[in-house]
From TrEMBL:
<protein>
    <submittedName>
        <fullName>Uncharacterized protein DUF3427</fullName>
    </submittedName>
</protein>
<dbReference type="Pfam" id="PF11907">
    <property type="entry name" value="DUF3427"/>
</dbReference>
<feature type="domain" description="DUF3427">
    <location>
        <begin position="47"/>
        <end position="189"/>
    </location>
</feature>
<dbReference type="InterPro" id="IPR021835">
    <property type="entry name" value="DUF3427"/>
</dbReference>
Length: 198
């Protein structure tokens, strides 16, 4: 059995010592430690982990065993949870995105993120007002970010950056927002997401 196999490995002093060395090495070289989200409802996603769109939509209950509605947008509002989720691809190619969807999305630093709405959103729409006043109304803004749509011919997953708070906005159709992340972006992600870094 598995238990017997583990016991046999641990009973051998050389194997046990090697396992301890491997665990200590891995612990010393952790790139990040994931954090639990603070949503007031059940959601199995951990901050700074990577997820596919399917996994995110399933975690929010949009997809389940009975239904998987079509989803092509970069944003989704879950009214029951009062949560807006943004799927952000930083480096967009002309072949994957139309000129009207080549938004300017980038990190300003490890906490501030610049994001553009869809081209039809103006300041007086209900959507824009929900974004601007999300704290007063109890709504949450949640960011999922990836560098490219595809890497090595596979669809890239998104890094869950957690919740963000409104800082400022400007423009119309599209609107440009600055969000403040509640958790620092992972250092590796900052270098990728900040397009001013050469």
């Amino acid at each position: 059995s598995i238990e017997e196999g583990v016991q046999r490995v641990l009973s051998c002093e050389a194997f046990r010592a090697e396992l301890v060395d491997i665990f200590q090495y891995n612990l010393a070289h952790l790139r990040f430690v994931d954090k639990s989200n603070s949503f007031p409802y059940t959601c199995p996603l951990d901050i700074h982990c990577m997820y596919s769109i399917d996994q995110v939509l399933a975690a929010f209950g949009y997809w389940n065993a009975e239904q998987s509605p079509t989803f092509r947008e970069g944003v989704k509002y879950f009214a029951d949870e009062q949560t807006d989720i943004f799927f952000i691809t930083l480096n967009k190619s002309d072949k994957d995105f139309s000129p009207s969807t080549l938004y300017e999305d980038y990190a300003i630093n490890e906490r501030l993120f610049h994001w553009q709405t869809q081209s039809r959103v103006s300041e007086h729409t209900a959507t824009a007002q929900r974004y601007i006043h999300h704290r007063e109304t109890g709504n949450r803004i949640v960011l999922f970010v990836r560098e490219y749509k595809e890497e090595r011919s596979y669809t890239s997953p998104f890094v869950f950056l957690g919740e963000a708070d409104y800082v400022s906005h400007e423009g119309n159709k599209p609107m440009s927002f600055v969000w403040r992340l509640r958790e620092d972006m992972p250092a590796k992600m900052v270098a990728v997401a900040n397009k001013c870094i050469v």
